[in-house]
Amino acid sequence: MAFLVVLGGGESGVGTAILGQKKGFDVFVSDKGKIKEKYKNVLEHFGIDWEESTHSEEKIMKADVVMKSPGIPDSVPLVKELVNKGIPVISEIEFASRYTDAKIIGITGSNGKTTTTMLTFHILKNGGLNVGMAGNIGDSFAKMVAEEDFDYYVLEISSFQLDGIREFKPHISIITNITPDHLDRYGYKFENYIASKFLITKNQSDEDYFIYDADDEVIVDWLKEHPVKSRLMPFSLKRSFGEGAYLENNEINITTQEDTIKMTTDTLALEGQHNVKNTMAAAMVAKLVGIRKETIRECISNFQGAPHRLEKVLKIHHVQYINDSKATNVNATYYALDSLKTPTVWIVGGVDKGNEYKDLMPLVREKVKAIVCLGVDNEKIKETFGNVVDLLVETYAMEEAVKVAYKIAERGDTVLLSPACASFDLFENYEDRGNQFKNCVKNL
């Protein structure tokens, strides 16, 4: 019996353990930290061997294959030793993809991948396909393959998950955009991060499709130097294509070899130019898998966006409160500010991943009337914007930040939580941060 070791007892680790056991592996889950109670219960239920707060290296080194959770860097000594011994170390999406014949739609990018994944799933499901959504969102892909039998999977995939692939091959791959993010995991070299994202196309053939943002110079320049085998399906707000998606007179045109679908942007449920792009990508997938035009049009007009992404919370005294807690980098916040039409009180701050805030300067000058800092260390934000806005206030708890914003905001303004930073200084994660914001707004 082949021996599968799973490093990390979170969502992807436990999903892989369940699938591994079902496929006849002897499975061992090892987590250097604590495993959450709900995951321990699942492992116990399936009778899977596990350990926490340690790695039994002697046992792990006997593995035939190791699935490493995406949170564990390749630079960890244990992982290096496994690689040196020639033991394959793969990611969950690689492991799971070996046990399904379903067509895979793989979506990655620095921003927009959750929205694009959810919208693609929404259209395909409403179009009558037998489709599952997994990856970085909801259930792990491995757990879904173990328990369901879908014809299609729409997967949100991070660069960390792509780093561990060998043969993983989506029929349709999407890169929404590439901006500097997670550089601490890539030796602070942007090109390493770009190469990681492009692994999504690595095993594709000329029968597969690659959908990408043709306005993104990083992607376009990389493609010039590193051509891919898949059929290129670009989307753009600036230029038109024989095959692809483009904007013309407020109309989205989706053109494939068969024909063209036209949709007016006035009907889009999601606001902002970046969401026009997310819609183009999702609609192109739907067109390629044969969903009817009427269904595509209907779905993009009634779609409810991703939670914590430009989520309208409440209007109080003619002030709109918006939760964009999922904006954990500068580029995501850029999209948020760009989509707003009203004077804005901006709540920003958290754990800075090496942010360059000056990219936001034109939007801050134009739209932001006051900044409420919410973080343990706000020095960089104060230095960058202290002389740009009329008012900058430091706060250290969500309730305080929301109360300050409430006092500053006037009729017709927007209060925007769009932190541009990770959340780990004051919150468990971005969901916790967003939920606290919503609760504090509701308690005003």
From TrEMBL:
One of its GO terms (biological process) is cell wall organization. It catalyses: UDP-N-acetyl-alpha-D-muramoyl-L-alanine + D-glutamate + ATP = UDP-N-acetyl-alpha-D-muramoyl-L-alanyl-D-glutamate + ADP + phosphate + H(+). Keywords: ATP-binding, Cell cycle, Cell division, Cell shape, Cell wall biogenesis/degradation, Cytoplasm, Ligase, Nucleotide-binding, Peptidoglycan synthesis. GO terms for cellular component: cytoplasm. Residues 308-421 form the Mur ligase C-terminal domain. Its EC number is 6.3.2.9. One of its GO terms (molecular function) is UDP-N-acetylmuramoylalanine-D-glutamate ligase activity. ATP binds at G109, S110, N111, G112, K113, T114, T115. Residues 107-286 form the Mur ligase central domain. It is found in: Cytoplasm. It comes from the Bacteria. Pathway: Cell wall biogenesis; peptidoglycan biosynthesis. Cell wall formation. Catalyzes the addition of glutamate to the nucleotide precursor UDP-N-acetylmuramoyl-L-alanine (UMA). NCBIfam families: murD (TIGR01087). Belongs to the MurCDEF family. This is UDP-N-acetylmuramoylalanine--D-glutamate ligase. It comes from Maribacter cobaltidurans. The lineage of its organism: Bacteria, Pseudomonadati, Bacteroidota, Flavobacteriia, Flavobacteriales. The gene is murD.
